[in-house]
Structures are given as structure tokens and as C-alpha cells.
Design goal:
It is a single chain. By secondary structure, this protein is mostly helical. It has a single domain, classed as MFS general substrate transporter like domains (Growth Hormone, Chain: A), CATH 1.20.1250.
Length: 400
């Protein structure tokens, strides 16, 4: 029996996947930005409120495994419909919370549905992309803009309409996008494309044990650093820039601009990944992370913005490299499951950032926290040094 012809426009599918990436990161970081205006409503301090999001980050990692399996064995399209509708409904529920228990349940549900995107959406993107490195970079840029929007949009909504609106309005938007996605995108078999395992620069066989061991270390350490910094940037900027920018809207804008540098990194790095070995972007991006974090632990005023933007550039650039590793080394029919394992490890490790913040911040402040994160970043750099050098996947790919 002949397989049905592809009905979906790859360009249209990729547009929806990029929108999903914006939603995924934005929704998971609404709470850290909104929490600055919630203490009066629940009578808890910053560290206590942040602790309520732990369940969401645990499920964000844990649920990626069943999500990836269902994406490969059931339907990636159906799973993405569930993502849009589910995370939107969970966000609305969180916005309607009247107790800390409801807040914790709402955040946990958001993590359950947010877990769908990375194993399923990233595999769907790779399956439809022509130039994978470039599309991974563009997709990463949109995800990073979601991080930026979380601070900017949340700061505006909290100031103008109260903290509940920061959850309810985006939740409604996500559900509308999900309905449009369900209407326009048909279910179809996973696109089949030829796959040849990459070899070393000299043509020798590459040890998959080394590749995936490096990926595992970088994913775990990077997950802790990524989550801890994106969770604490609003607090860091509020503490260090309070004399310059006092209003929530202005602070939200400044934090968003710092995140936006990560978007530039992913767009830039993605355009180079098809043309060069993955090793060198990996090494260059990770060698800068520890110095940036150590400096952020101690600087004040304007340098915080410059160093904060620089760190986001190298941090999000590394995320693009990590996704390209899976896209280049794993056959298409296995990609959802391998992406699921990657993000299970990443988000599972990142969940430890919540108790880390809750324990360290009241005792040693953000200074102690960022020194610890610098040590994690140094481990990521050591892993990058071990990664094998591979030829470029598509040396003739256009940068434009």
C-alpha cells in the first residue's frame, strides 16, 4: 500500500511549531515574573512563593518521556493539539487560584502540558525542515522570545490589570491557536528522510557513548543554570537596578531586552550549524558562561544589564547546539523519544534549581547562588572539550 501524499505545507507546520515554542517558554516563566506582585495576595515572601512552582518544573521534565513516546507511536499532530489546549486551560486555572494549593496544582498542570512541546514539537520541526541547523536556530529564537515576552508581558499585565490577568489572557490566546492548528494541520505519517550517522573529521567512526555522555552532562548542568537564571533574572534586575528603574513595566522591559540577546544568538548560531563542526560553537559558547555568571554575582547598576544580556547570548546559543546534536545523530523515527530523554534530563535537572534558589537565596543572596551556577557552567565547558569534531552536515548551506 502506498503511503498517503503529504498534505501539510512544511512552512505552515513550522510556523505553528515556532508559535508553540513561544508559548511553552513564556507560560513556564509567567510565574517568576508575576510573583513579584503576588506576595500581598497570599502572605508569602519571594522564596516561599517560588517554591510553589516546583511541581510544574518536575512534571515539565518527567512528562516529556511519555509525551515523546506518544508522539512517535500515536500522533505528533494530536499531541500538539493537546499541548495548545492543555497549557492554555492550566494557565487559566492558575489565574483563577484563590489559595496556594490551587497555585501549586495549576503550575503542576502547566508543567504536564508544557512537557509535550520539546520532544514532540522539536521532532516535528526537524522532520519538516530543509536546512535543519537554520530552522533549529530560528525555532530557538522564537522560544527565547517567549522567555522575553514572559517578563515584558507579565510586567505590563500585572501593573495594569493585576497578576491574574498575566495567566488568564495568555491562556485564552493559546487555546485559540490550538483550535486553529487542529483545523489547518492534518495528521500524517512521520516524514521519512535518509539518515547517515556522522563520522569524525578524518572519516573514523564516532563513539556514540562519548557523544551522548557529553550531551547528558551538558544537558543536566545547563538545565540547572538555565532554569535558575531565567527564574531569578527578574529578582536580580529588581535588586541591582532598583535605583534606575522602579516600575514593574520598566524592569520587565529591561529583563526582556536581556533575554532578546539569546534570541539573536540562536538565530545566528543556527545559521552556522549546517556549515561547520558542532564542536567549535559548543566550546566557544560554553567557555564564556562561567565568567559571565561569576561577574553577575557581584556587579551592580548598568553592568548587570550588559553582562546579563551577554550570558543569555551564550546560554541560548548552547541550547541550539544541543538540539542540533540530536537532529544530526539520531534517525527520524527515534527523534521524539531521544528528544524526550534529552529534555527529561534537562528539565529534571532544572527542577533542582527551585529548591536551590529557595535554600541559597535567603542565606547567601543571589551572590552565593550565581557563584554556584558558575561552577555548574564550568562543568559544561569541560564536557564540550571532550565532544568529537565532526564534518559540517551541509557546508554549502546559505547563511541568509
Amino acid at each position: 500500500m502506498n503511503k498517503p501524499e503529504r498534505q501539510n505545507s512544511p512552512k505552515r507546520v513550522i510556523h505553528f511549531i515556532n508559535a508553540a515554542h513561544v508559548i511553552d517558554h513564556m507560560f513556564m516563566l509567567i510565574f517568576p515574573a508575576a510573583v513579584l506582585g503576588m506576595s500581598g495576595a497570599f502572605g508569602l515572601d519571594y522564596a516561599q512563593l517560588i517554591g510553589l512552582s516546583l511541581g510544574g518544573f518536575i512534571t515539565f521534565g518527567a512528562c516529556s518521556l511519555p509525551a515523546g513516546w506518544l508522539g512517535d507511536r500515536w500522533s505528533r499532530r494530536h499531541m500538539m493539539v493537546l499541548f495548545f489546549l492543555g497549557i492554555g486551560a492550566a494557565s487559566i486555572f492558575t489565574g483563577l487560584s484563590t489559595s496556594t494549593t490551587m497555585l501549586a496544582v495549576g503550575m503542576t498542570l502547566m508543567g504536564v502540558f508544557a512537557a509535550i512541546y520539546h520532544p514532540v514539537g522539536t521532532a516535528m520541526l526537524v522532520g519538516y525542515a530543509k536546512n535543519r541547523g537554520r530552522e533549529i536556530g530560528v525555532n530557538g529564537m522564537w522560544g527565547n522570545l517567549g522567555v522575553a515576552f514572559s517578563a515584558l508581558l507579565t510586567g505590563f499585565l500585572v501593573a495594569q490589570f493585576g497578576w491574574r490577568s498575566a495567566f488568564i489572557l495568555p491562556g485564552c490566546v493559546s487555546m485559540v491557536i490550538g483550535l486553529v492548528f487542529a483545523w489547518q494541520i492534518k495528521d500524517e505519517p512521520i516524514p521519512v528522510r535518509p539518515h547517515t550517522a556522522p563520522k569524525g573529521k578524518a572519516g573514523q567512526r564516532i563513539s556514540m557513548t562519548i557523544v551522548f555522555s557529553v550531551l547528558a552532562i551538558a544537558t543536566a548542568t545547563g538545565g540547572v543554570v538555565f532554569n535558575a537564571t531565567t527564574m531569578t533574572y527578574p529578582k536580580l534586575f529588581q535588586d541591582r537596578l532598583h535605583d534606575l528603574f522602579a516600575s514593574p513595566q520598566t524592569l520587565g522591559l529591561i529583563v526582556s531586552l536581556a533575554y532578546a540577546f539569546g534570541a539573536i544568538a540562536q538565530l545566528t548560531i543556527g545559521r552556522f550549524l549546517d556549515r561547520f563542526s558542532l564542536k567549535w560553537p559548543f566550546v566557544i559558547l560554553t567557555v564564556c558562561q562561567a565568567p559571565f555568571l561569576f561577574a553577575l554575582a557581584y556587579v551592580d547598576s548598568w553592568p548587570v544589564m550588559l553582562l546579563g544580556a551577554g550570558f543569555m547570548f551564550v546560554m541560548f546559543g548552547q541550547v541550539t547546539v544541543n538540539d542540533a546534536m540530536v537532529a544530526n545523530f539520531v534517525a527520524p523515527q527515534w527523534q521524539s523519544r531521544v528528544f524526550a530523554l534529552r529534555y527529561f534530563l534537562s528539565f529534571g535537572a532544572s527542577a533542582t534549581a527551585i529548591p536551590l534558589i529557595a535554600f541559597v537565596e535567603p542565606r547567601q543572596g543571589l551572590v552565593g547562588l550565581y557563584v554556584i551556577l558558575a561552577a555548574f557552567a564550568a562543568l559544561t565547558f569541560l564536557a564540550a572539550l571532550v565532544f568529537p569534531r565532526t564534518p559540517a552536515e551541509n557546508p554549502s548551506a546559505q547563511l541568509a
